[in-house]
Amino acid sequence: MPPGQPWPLTFFEGTNILFLTYLFKTTTVPFMKKKSQYRDLFPGALELMILKSLSWRPMHGYALAQRLKDISEDYLQIEEGSLYPALQRMLKAGWLETEMGLSARNRPVRIYKVTQAGKKHLEQEIASVEKMFAGITRVLALAGR
Amino acid sequence: MSWLRQLFSRRRRYEELSASIREHLDEKAADLMDGGMTREQAEQAARRQFGNVTLIEQRSREVWLWPWLESILTDLRLILRRLGKSPGFAATILLTLAIGIGANVAVFSVVNRVLLEPLPYPHSNQLVALRLDAPGAGGLADISNGLQLSPSMYLTFSGHNRSFQSMGIWNKGTANETGIARPEQVRSANVSDGVLRTLDVMPILGHWFSPAEQDPRGPKAVMLSYGYWQRRFGGRRDVIGRILHVDSQAREIVGVMPRGFRMVDQDFDVLIPMAVDRVHEKLAPFCCDAIGRLKPGVSLAQADADIARLIPVWMDSWTNGPGTDPQYYKIWRITPDFRPLKQRVIGNVSSILWVVMATVGLVLLIACTNIANLLLVRAESRQHELSIRTALGAGRRRIARELLLESVVLGLAGGVLAVGVAGAGLRLLADAGPSNLPRLSEIALDARSLGFTLLLSVLSGLLFGCIPVWRYTRARASLTMGGTSRTATGGRSHRRFRNALVIAQTAMALVLLVSALLMIRTFAALRDVQPGFYDPAQIQTMRITIPASLIPNPEQAGRTKNEIAHRIAAIPGVTAAGFGAAAPMDGIDPNWDLIYVEGKNYDGGQPPLRFFNYISPGYLHAMGTRLVAGRAFTWTDIYGGRQMVLVSENFARDTWGSAAAAIGKRVRTFHTAPWQQVIGVVENVRQHGLDEAAPAIIYWPALLEDPSAPKPAFWGPNSVTFVIRSSRAGHQEFISALQQAVWSVNADLPVASVRTMQDISNRSMARTSFTLAMLAIGGSMGLALSIVGIYGVISWSVAERRREIGIRLALGAQRDALRWMFVRSALAMTAAGVGMGLAAATLLMRLMRSLLYGVSPLDPLTYVAVPVILAAAALLASYIPARRAAAVDPIQSLRSE
Q1: Ranges under pLDDT 50 in chain B
Q2: Do B577 and B724 sit in the same domain of this protein?
Q3: From B16, B26, B50, residue closest to A81, measured CB to CB
Q4: Which end of chain B, N or C, is less packed with Cβ atoms under 10 Å?
Q5: Which of B23, B368, B300, B1 is nearest to B164 (CA)?
Q6: Could you say which of B19, B26, B51 has the minimum Cβ distance to residue A31?
Q7: For residue range B788-821, what is the model confidence (pLDDT) as tens digits?
Q8: Predicted ipTM?
Q9: Strand pairing partners for B119?
Q10: In the CATH scheme, what is the code of domain A27-140?
């Protein structure tokens, strides 16, 4: 992955970044190392992140894993292997498709690409997640008063 | 579809998945090597950080849900391979199932069509048969159909009731159709106004009869059935408006009814308006079936009450002519007893069908227990394999799934074969079934039957499959690897369980055999009945109708019939010929009426109603019916207008004490009628079937002076059955000779219902012989299956106890005693089964009472014979394996391990 690329935070725009930090700190991804300080991600969260990453640029599996690791820093513990069942689920749902491409080392690899259906699903999911975040934020902000 | 596509692309998907993971690891290792690791270190680190590659690959594959399907497929392949390896085992089970399920499906198809499906009329649940009870009307109101309605009743009821949307009366008959080609006798249904409206089926061409066409003085009309329209007019649409000559009456064709339309339970060719004459109707005759369509929400009880109110109105409104008492019918105690029309159509057939259904159901149950036993034995011989698999971590559910899958596969394969068996069985039923089975011709394997097959296949698969599964999963706790072959005898509970299956089987077989034997005894009793006629195969019968429109003068009609009988008697090979208004068992009752005996007083002033038949000279001789005393009619007597009757022997004995005493005594039908002299006494005849007692019969001459006519006039029945005794009866050339003889007298007379008395009497036995055949097949199948069951269990236990037998022999056991040991256990099982079966049979056979004749449902002979048969079967079935046990060589059997 070329260094220095900015993490495209567009889908988090308009959301309280502090809350996102809180959310990520308290969640884990399925198949992550079981550590008690991490909590399970909400269902579909991993898929959402994969979709977002791949819609920015089609990637092969390793590149995707690296990318997620780099940008989530140590907020999220994502085991590389756990991407694959998720990728298969998304292939089955028709959100992704594969094609042959070249890796950064110029090796032939399978590249995962977001389909039209995947794009649509991503938009819907972002909208609904933002609504949820807004709701939770509001409740957390006001419930204690 | 996408599901299927996914299924077929799974190999490519799996390869792509593995390639993806491999690329991932390669890239990662390359990155790590850039960081300074060796290739080996880098690859290891890459794998470590990736996680469990195999597990992740497996999980990723499971996303597609193929692994589950694949394991089922693997199981299936394994099952098929295993079944293929033991073709005898598989064939036994499949054949048993095919017959068991097939018989059930065939009978179900019949039951479904006959008993479960509604009648083919719109809102048929509103339709009722207007059946009247009349306990005082003697034979006029029989038990099943009750008293029929008279046209005047119909007029009163339909005009004043509050419960019915519409009602109508009808009767079936025959009519002579002339003028198109050869004269033909057609089946007619005479329908009053309201019948078609009640059934509510529109014609496909033309219209229902109009009120004008139902007026006796209006235009004459006729409607055709679909079949007759096709047969006689080739389905031409311009048939409406054409003229058809029915009973020499020109009638305009006004409509054609759709295919499959029947008058309640009758097929017909033409519908003729009954044209009830309001001016001249009397209280009698009680000639007609009646149907009605209830208003929505009206119950049968309400309808009964409504019509009960109208019966006195009916008696007040009509008369039987001057000098008669219109209130006479009070002593008949007429009350409405309306029934759903469906019940009327089904009649007594339902009891046979349920018995047959129960029989084949029992056979299937026996078959299932047998198969369960086989599978149990098989599961036990696989115990070693199963315990190894359990030890390797196969879950209980996983193994149960495989066992159940195996039995369901067997069940389904058996079901596929069963469809063929059922198809053949239905054809057999259609040929051999009782003729009064309604809608027999419409029965076919439809979607419902196929659904039933599927259901039955899966259910029986689960039934005989769950027994080994249940045994296996319960016994698992005690399973130890390798321990099974060392124990001297197998699990005691296993054996006890298999024995229980055999006992249940024997009990069911006993019930079947008892019912079969009772039917055989019924059949034999019926065969021994003296029907009142002899050598029925040599009696040819045919029916001829001379309508009043063809020969209006009754005397002339009588002479025509006389001439026909005369010509027939001249045919070579004919030893006697005559005719009567009805032949025994042909389903025709010419008349029931009062008969007063001279010098006798009756309780209530009224004698009971008696069966009247009208016969010609030669009739009794042709039938072979003996004269017990006196003599028969002659033509001279008849044309001389002599007042005379013959009576049946039972009537003579009841009335005058003996047959001889009856001669010369006098009877009459009403007070002002002339006295009739009894000139002969005739042997009793089973007029209504072999299984019904012979009625008292008054025989009148076929041509007689009408006592109710104002001036002396002859009268005779329009329709008569000719009976001809000849050794050539039933042969085609003989029948055409008969036809020629008829046509040489009058070319406009069709000949109908050409049968021998044997056919008629067989038809009267059809119900019994059909039930007998079904029960005999069921009983012998049950017996065969239970022999196989006993044989299987005993020979398995012999094989299982070889070591024990060896030890016993080595210690000096007698071979006879050993043989006896096995035979005894078989007999013990049979005894237990017989005990249970007898208890069940005594309860169940009461349900069969209506099908039995001349034998009690608790017939001692049957209840002794069947256990003896079963015991003999058990002896036979156990003796063969027991001999094998006694032949065991102790040295070999002990050394073999």
Answers
A1: 477-489
A2: yes
A3: B50
A4: N
A5: B300
A6: B51
A7: 888 888 887 887 788 888 888 888 888 888 889 8
A8: 0.71
A9: none
A10: 1.10.10.10
